[in-house]
Amino acid sequence: MSMLNSTHHQPPFFLLSGIPGLEASHIWISIPLSIMYVTAILGNSIIIHIVHKTPSLHEPQYVFLSLLAATDIGMSASTLPTVLKVFIFNHREIEFHGCLAQMFFIHTFSSMESAMLLAMAFDHFMAIRNPLCYTTALTPSRITQMGLAAVARGVALMIPLPILLQQLPFCRNIVLSYSFCFHPDVMKLACGSIRVNVIYGLVLVLCSFGVDSIFIVLSYALILKTVLGIASREGCLKVLNTCVSHILTVFIFYVPLIALALIHRIGRYHSPLPHITLSNIFLFLTPVLNPLVYSVKTKQIRSALGRLFKCKTR
């Protein structure tokens, strides 16, 4: 308790939180959370496996899908240890540097996911608007370069986050709002000025998620313009149907992300429950829903899944 009554440059640990008002039900809440983690990791692993093992899926759109699945696994793995510890064992402590490391990986994988969604939008754009240049523009080496660029951008943009937080003094309140470490949540516990952190956080959002979302919208505007030029209604619907899975995935990722960013900036005096709900939707549901969306909406993935499970049951 003496630690809580004095000022510290770096506290030895933070205290994580579950869901306010439902502490008595945490053990029951851990059951659906565990199911979601298993679904996310298993579902995305299956997507990666079938893309790797099915020669007919060795095309740019499915390679990008497997990279998206790998990113989803990373997002799930980043939050899994602390979330399950809080809800199953009520173990709330997380070491200071461990918290910064978890925060770095959460935000890095989020940035990588955004980059993968942009790459997939570019893939759809090239396939529909410039089909003759499709195979020459998206060669295996170029896809590899795009994947490495997504990783490099995520790491480069997120490294300053823990470095800046290490320069801040923390005192008294060491209780975080979530069951994982999230940059805006850790930042608000600092006693000193967080102006630099706030400005960098805003620049970060604009340079990664903001730029990606603008180019995704632009890609689909050009796709829509191309589709409207197709004479037959059946042709238009067929082309648009190829984009449905990606559009749903974009909405699943960006809608809670944008809502969470807005609430953190304009809803600071409101109940913490919207923050917690949206952050959980963003980090937990996205990796779960992405493989389900592609499994249901993409015929080639459905067929490959059918062959996989048919072989397993023999």
Automatic annotation (TrEMBL):
<dbReference type="InterPro" id="IPR000725">
    <property type="entry name" value="Olfact_rcpt"/>
</dbReference>
<feature type="domain" description="G-protein coupled receptors family 1 profile">
    <location>
        <begin position="43"/>
        <end position="294"/>
    </location>
</feature>
<keyword id="KW-0812">Transmembrane</keyword>
<keyword id="KW-0552">Olfaction</keyword>
<feature type="transmembrane region" description="Helical">
    <location>
        <begin position="62"/>
        <end position="84"/>
    </location>
</feature>
<keyword id="KW-0297">G-protein coupled receptor</keyword>
<dbReference type="InterPro" id="IPR050402">
    <property type="entry name" value="OR51/52/56-like"/>
</dbReference>
<dbReference type="InterPro" id="IPR000276">
    <property type="entry name" value="GPCR_Rhodpsn"/>
</dbReference>
<dbReference type="Pfam" id="PF13853">
    <property type="entry name" value="7tm_4"/>
</dbReference>
<feature type="transmembrane region" description="Helical">
    <location>
        <begin position="143"/>
        <end position="165"/>
    </location>
</feature>
<comment type="function">
    <text>Putative odorant or sperm cell receptor.</text>
</comment>
<feature type="transmembrane region" description="Helical">
    <location>
        <begin position="104"/>
        <end position="122"/>
    </location>
</feature>
<protein>
    <submittedName>
        <fullName>Olfactory receptor 51I2-like</fullName>
    </submittedName>
</protein>
<dbReference type="InterPro" id="IPR017452">
    <property type="entry name" value="GPCR_Rhodpsn_7TM"/>
</dbReference>
<feature type="transmembrane region" description="Helical">
    <location>
        <begin position="243"/>
        <end position="263"/>
    </location>
</feature>
<keyword id="KW-0807">Transducer</keyword>
<feature type="transmembrane region" description="Helical">
    <location>
        <begin position="198"/>
        <end position="223"/>
    </location>
</feature>
<feature type="transmembrane region" description="Helical">
    <location>
        <begin position="275"/>
        <end position="294"/>
    </location>
</feature>
<keyword id="KW-0675">Receptor</keyword>
<feature type="transmembrane region" description="Helical">
    <location>
        <begin position="27"/>
        <end position="50"/>
    </location>
</feature>
<keyword id="KW-1133">Transmembrane helix</keyword>
<keyword id="KW-0716">Sensory transduction</keyword>
<keyword id="KW-0472">Membrane</keyword>
